[in-house]
Specification:
heterodimer; A: alpha/beta; Transcription Regulator spoIIAA; Pectate Lyase C-like; 2 domains; six-stranded mixed beta sheet; 20% helix; B: alpha/beta; Rossmann fold; eight-stranded mixed beta sheet; 8 strands; globular
């Protein structure tokens, strides 16, 4: 059975070649067969480089193996590996993805001088008092009064938002943007959110309802999975 | 077995020492055995407010460093026997007291007294840590000013990390007319921000300053609102339910009836 079945299948597409590597054989076998295939089909030298997408199925490539394949395919400058596509990822990577997209509920008051840092989204059930600070790599949702500093998307996610039941922050920070409260005494606002407005190139505070069309990808777990 | 309560605020000058003296006095008036401890080493005040400055022979640092026994350092109040004071040192440096030594002293005092009221120094450094170390409960004093509410918030955050009950709040130095005009934070707003239980509100009154200059806690004079406020706080510490003092000045009968029927005056 195994012998008849091709371990390597090559298909041409508009964007270049797609190379399917069967996931039921060992890496060495596939490597040898791929080597043979490529040697058979040696063509003229002055052809332009063809981009190859390698589809691995349910096979996981270590960095070493990926480098080896890249070297083999790229040999002679005829092909160049554009990307490896695999259905599987290692568990620790999956866990860190999950952590990044998980909503962490925390039930306490962040008082003056206290800093709360989380990876992923923060759901704070409680207030952020003046002088207190909450930091997250994702979005920040506060069921309570937001009177201190909030920093969403601390690792550079400009799509992050900060939403609160009552918003009277001293500062809002999203990724590398900072906005602060006006110098005059102002009333807070209820049920609003802070987000980066691309056109004005600054953080704006708006009604929560605008999120449904301005940040469509807020829904669901898959958004960060798809973004990788 | 007694109970140790620390009076703290973070910010200086909000009335920790006055509060300590008056709560202690009010508890003693209710025939509880009370010991006041001044932990503000180097800047002692409590003895002055209590009018006991002249009687100090040994202080808390002498006790810690073993120069005297704890009992020798305690000063009995000149007015009633239920009240004692353990004064702070004025000369020794702050490094003398440690968390462990404070715990030891308070454990010893708890055998003898019903209530141990600890006057905490301002700030959040070692002095604060020492003062808080042996306490079972805490009372946070704040005034209706933004800065002192901010510091109270910080202190409450620090106290949350200790093994004690959630602290309770006294709002001191309330000026009724300013609160009404909105020039000061109002009580609801402060309680909302700090979100801890309110144990008492105390008006700002010149009499307080007068009394403490005379070395007589105002709680001794039952004819002022402030005195009643402190006595109410003492009763709440004892577990009684006492309604909050009204901030309004005494009203005529007619207005009381109006209020009873819910008509706004």
């Amino acid at each position: 059975m195994q012998e008849n079945k091709q371990m390597i299948t090559i298909k041409g597409t508009r964007d270049g070649l797609t190379l399917f590597i069967d996931d039921s054989c060992s890496f060495e076998e596939a490597f040898i067969e791929l080597n043979e295939k490529l040697t058979e089909n040696l063509s003229k030298k002055d052809e332009p480089t063809v981009y190859v997408t390698v589809k691995l199925g349910n096979r996981y490539l270590t960095t070493d193996q990926a480098e080896k394949l890249r070297g083999l395919i790229g040999r002679g400058n005829r092909f160049s590996v554009q990307s490896f596509e695999s259905n599987v990822i290692p568990k620790d990577k999956a866990l860190s993805w999950m952590e990044d997209s998980e909503v962490k509920p925390i039930n306490r008051i962040i008082r003056s001088g206290q800093v709360l840092e989380v990876t992923g989204d923060l759901l704070l059930i409680g207030d952020v008092n003046p002088g207190g600070k909450v930091v997250s790599t994702g979005n920040i949702y506060i069921m309570g009064s937001m009177r201190g500093i909030a920093h969403a998307g601390v690792n550079g996610d400009r799509n992050a938002v900060i939403a609160a039941s009552y918003m009277k922050p001293s500062q809002l920070r999203i990724a590398d943007y900072i906005s602060r409260a006006p110098d005059y005494e102002s009333d807070g606002v209820y049920m609003e959110c802070g987000l980066i407005d691309e056109e004005q190139d600054k953080i704006i505070i708006d009604r929560l309802q605008v999120l449904s069309h301005k940040r469509k990808d807020l829904n669901g777990f898959e958004r960060r999975m798809n973004n990788g | 077995m007694g109970e140790a309560i620390v009076i703290t605020s973070g910010k200086g000058g909000v009335g920790k020492t006055t509060t300590t003296a008056n709560i202690g006095t009010a508890l003693a008036l209710m025939e509880k055995k009370v010991c006041l401890i001044d932990t503000d080493i180097g800047l002692r005040n409590l003895d002055v407010v209590m009018g006991l400055e002249n009687r100090i022979i040994y202080d808390i640092v002498d006790v810690i460093e073993g120069r005297c026994k704890l009992k020798q350092a305690l000063i009995k109040d000149k007015r009633f026997e239920y009240l004692s004071l353990l004064p702070a040192a004025q000369t020794s440096d702050k490094a003398a007291s440690t968390v462990d030594s404070m715990k030891k002293i308070i454990t010893e005092l708890k055998q003898e007294f019903d209530y141990i009221i600890i006057d905490c120094p301002a700030g959040i450094e070692q002095g604060f840590q020492n003062a808080v170390a042996g306490a079972d409960k805490a009372i946070v004093v704040t005034t209706p000013e933004k800065s002192s509410v901010r510091d109270a918030d910080r202190i409450i955050g620090l106290l949350e990390n200790k093994e004690m009950e959630p602290p309770r709040l006294i709002i001191n130095r309330i000026r009724n007319h300013m609160m009404k005009n909105g020039d000061m934070l109002d009580i609801d707003e402060i309680v909302h921000i700090l979100s801890i239980d309110l144990i008492g509100i105390v008006l700002d009154d010149d009499e307080v300053i007068k009394a403490s200059n005379n070395g007589e806690p105002i709680a001794l004079h039952p004819n002022t609102k402030v005195s009643i406020a402190y006595r109410n706080i003492a009763r709440r510490i004892l577990g009684e339910t006492v309604p909050l003092q009204s901030l309004e000045d005494e009203k005529g009968m007619f207005q009381k009836v109006k209020k009873f029927f819910g008509i706004r005056s």
